[in-house]
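Memo to structure team: turn this sequence into structure tokens by end of day. - J.P.
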Amino acid sequence: MAKEPDAFLPLKDLVFRILVALADGERHGWALVQSLQASGGSTVLPGHLYRTLDRMLDDGLIRERRQPSAPLPPRASRGVEPTRFFQLTDVGKSVARAETQRLAALVAKSRSARLLKERR
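Reply from structure team:
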């Protein structure tokens, strides 16, 4: 039986950041690392990233492909080609939406408690 999205909440920071990064589309591991670093979070070590991705796969939040769904852009250097590509599942999208709503409610409450300045 599938879990309701709220059963996954609250999400760990890295899980939420991965879901947000995959909301734009499929990514391979290195592209995920680059996206996570660009979002201003802490550095993610490869072992921690892949353990988290494996848990997310087990939970049905993401799916894995061994081939990209679209051709990869040409690369400047010839290194090891990516072999694992990740994308959101419908459950993953629902969980990401639920967590976004939960966090938005917390921000709204913080504003009403005058912990944050109102937007202009």
